[in-house]
User: What shape does this take?
Amino acid sequence: MGATIIEKIVGAHAGRDVAPGDTVDVVIDARVARDFGGANVVKNIEEHGLVVDDAGKTYFTFDCNPGGSDQKYAANQQVCRGFARARDISIYDVNAGIGTHLAIDEGLVGPGGTIVSTDSHANILGAIGAFGQGMGDQDIASAWAHGKVWFNVPKSMRIFLEGRPGPQATPKDIVLACLRHFHASGLLGYAAEYYGDVVDSLSLDARITIASMATEMGGIITFFPPSDEVIEYCRAAGATSFTPAFADSDARYDAEVHVDIDGLVPLIARPGHPDDVVEVSEAAGRKIDSAFIGSCTNGRYSDMAAAAEVLKDRKVAPGVVLKIVPATDTVWQKCLAEGIIETFKSAGVLVGNAGCAGCAAGQLGQNGPGEVTISTGNRNYPGKQGKGEVYLASPATAAASAVAGQIATTDSIPDTPSVFMPDPELVSAHPAVAASGGASGGRPTVVKGRVWIVDKDNIDTDMIFHNRHLAITDITEMGQHTFGNLPGWENFPSDAAPGDIVVVGSNFGCGSSRQQAVDCFTSLGVSLLIAESFGAIYERNAINAGMPIMAADLSGAGAKSGDEIEVDLTTGKIKHPASGKVFEGRPFSDVQMEIYQRGGLLAAA
Assistant: This one.
């Protein structure tokens, strides 16, 4: 039986053939920490007396807050700089751009290679046929110290893109069509591979756009088999020692899915959910306050050129702010040389220095309460890009909307832009989050506790622990922010007590790779998290932190908040004394139990 792309890459880096479900140690070719997670990686390395395995394969990338405009970010960046200088570790500092793009453009990894980063979109490397994985602070610290990480080989899916998109459709519209098909968890636990006639013709920039949104569909990664053009690009970038991986003709896939993109028209994701996708025509006319073009999804040169084509000899609508941020400084410089920056400035655009921008709280692109934004980012979860409404669309649609003053496509820009009418109403700020208690300890294999039923699916890490608190490294400060961005649960930190058990729906912890979304529960003393399923990165972070989690469906238990349940971590049996029912959960694996018992991945064995 042949192997899929993920099986080829993982097997080559584990030194043996692998199959879905195997747990193996995988050698990592490039190990990256960003500015928001880097200080915690340093803290973990130093507190556990670890030594960096290979400084030549180890990197910092400062892309979340390129300006160092927040004191905690600035302090964390300087911690990383000091650590790097002492150990001869390379830094792509605040002037360089987005780390995942630099990994491709600087040849840090090539097709068939492996990379980990404190970026949940490290799987963007699937664009060149490399394996990228976003991981939490402890995983990255372990990779830095040992040069490898443990990994569960996922199932593989083959996705066929059927047909040819319409003339106005862009790569962003293709991936939005995939989101419309798969929704937030359709790729949960999968490594997927894209095939189809249109795939062969996609440029590297287009592949990056599509690969960057695997996370929003719950996927581990989506791969594009590398084309000759991509392979040559990577060689020219400096990644000379690599072996591209292609699936065998007799590879076994868990699923094959066909997504119809024939005649595809411009699409848009409505606020709150990246997978709430409709044709732009259904949202056309919605008045906007601002627009953003950039992010790891649409910050390449071709994205800038597409926006410039729309903006040339036009002006941004009165009262609308259009913010544009190239992904890397190289893209920025090319835009300057080609006259694109001049086109932007003539149109009234605010151009930022290269970086993540609106997806991170530390750079331009965030919006305020009541503000309506059209963005080319990859996420529009509540609070992710600010406090207002965020629509997701292509650079062409975002630029056309900025000129129109309302949501519009390039062929429907009105002669006269939409303007604002006086509105005396102001949107009040969100109330502050209540304070919390402390963390608890102990390694029992049977857990009893009062249960909290949070009957929601797809609770993402911004809802659990908002990105405005990412600079916090002291675990005792984290608990007070738990569920601070989950409507109706803002008071959870003050209501919860040590020993409580939290029960949630499916795909819990989807989204960002932030470790704080796990550690905030530890800070409160929560003894166990039960979910129908967990986001892939979140599950790793919890296991590595020694935070007990279990996959189980308790929807038929009849349990309500305040009831007591008893859970056996070894057998997976869950007892609900009030009803006398016993339910089956997924017992701890040997790896999970071993890490749990010793108190975390980095704790002494």
Notes: DSSP finds 19 helices and 25 strands in the chain. The two ends are 38 Å apart (CA to CA). The first helix runs from residue 5 to 14. The CA atoms of residues 166 and 263 lie 4 Å apart.
